[in-house]
Structures are given as structure tokens and as C-alpha cells.
Amino acid sequence: EDQVTQSPEALRLQEGESSSLNCSYTVSGLRGLFWYRQDPGKGPEFLFTLYSAGEEKEKERLKATLTKKESFLHITAPKPEDSATYLCAVISYNNNDMRFGAGTRLTVKP
Amino acid sequence: NAGVTQTPKFRVLKTGQSMTLLCAQDMNHEYMYWYRQDPGMGLRLIHYSVGEGTTAKGEVPDGYNVSRLKKQNFLLGLESAAPSQTSVYFCASRPPGRTYNEQFFGPGTRLTVL
Question: What is the mean pLDDT of residues B53-62?
């Protein structure tokens, strides 16, 4: 069965303090790995899709990378507005459902 | 475009009551999904639809029914609500084609069952 584990559960950073969020996955043939951002009381908002090991994508202060077992979301010089829960999800050749991790709640203090 | 909208935003039910959650999208997407989100468990798929008139079970379908009579609408029904169905419900849609197309999410419905 496809599984997605995100760590840490929560992360507190000072503004400007760079860090990384981890998403470990176990699937039978990865079709795609997704990163979403979710603000309190709102639905998830799409950030990135990664398809194969070695792939990287960037958007402003965020950079997502992918290996055969995990993905990292690197946050460079974060700002308070980057505070949110970041969700990782996978789709595999095993099933067409998107399987989500529990998320990492990021807080960036000014 | 409004994107994906959900009604109601909040609802409180008593055990055994029934209700229907409505999801509407104006992006002409073929695929629509219903998820529930519980603390520490992430989003879990309840039911989904690959087109008008079709529905299929997801990971946690028990206690729920769905209907897709119109392409733009996807309804989630609870026939006899239970406290275990207290959750935040999200609807999502995506265009047809590649399975790994991104999904667009609605704002959610917070349901409490007493």
C-alpha cells in the first residue's frame, strides 16, 4: 500500500532562517509527487509536481527536490507569510488516488 | 471564475441526521473528488467521479454516498451521521488526461456531529 510520511510535524523558524521539510514515500511505481500549501481554514493550494528522481522545481523562496525515496521542500530565507501547513502527496501506478501525508505545520516568526 | 465552491461552510448535526454537501466547479473539469481531513491523518479520499453520471469509491467510502448528475456539481451525502464523521470535508477537481494533473481544491466544509 502506498504510504507518505512527512517530517517534522511542526517547525518554527525565525525570519530568514532557511530549512527543509521532508516527505518520505513508499509506492509501487511513482507517477507524480505533489506539494501543496494549506492556510488555516482554507483548501490546499498547488505548489509543485515532481515526476522523476533528480528533478527540481522552484517558486520564489521554495525549492522542491525528489529522490527515489523522498522529497524535500527547501525554504530559503523564509518570511512570516510563508507560515502554513505544507502537504505532500503521491500518485502511483498502483492506484489512481492521490495519497497525502499528514503535513508539516510551518511557523515563521518575524 | 469562482473555481471550486462548497456549501455549506459549517454545519452541526445530531447523530442519525442526514445532510448533503454540495461542490460546484466552473472550470469544466471532468474529474471531481471528495476528501476528509482529520488532525494528524492528512487528507483521505472518500469518493470520486471521472465524469457526469459516474462515481467510484475511494479509501474511506463507508457511511457516505455521492452523485454526479451534472458535470459541474458533485454531491456528498451522509444518510445517518455519526460522531466519527466529524471532520473537514474538501472537494477537488481536475481536468482529464494525465493522472498526475494537479487538483484544485475548494475552501472546505467543517462538519460537527454531536
Answer: 94
For chain B, what is the largest distance between any 2 Cα atoms, rounded to a whole number of angstroms? 41
Chain A residues within 8 A of B45 when measuring between CB atoms: 97-98
Contacts B59 to A, Cβ<8 Å: 97, 99
Residues B75-111: tens digit of each pLDDT: 999 999 999 999 999 999 998 776 667 899 999 999 9
The torsion angles phi and psi of B83, rounded to 5 degrees, stand at -55, -30
What average pLDDT does range A86-107 have in this prediction? 91
Residues B73-86 as b/e (b if ≥16 CB within 10 A, e otherwise) read: ebbbebeebeeebb
- Single-letter code of the amino acid located at B5: T
Cell for A8?
517534522
DSSP A82: G
Rg (C-alpha) for chain B, rounded Å, is 13
Q: Choose the closest CB to A96 out of B40, B99, B106.
A: B99
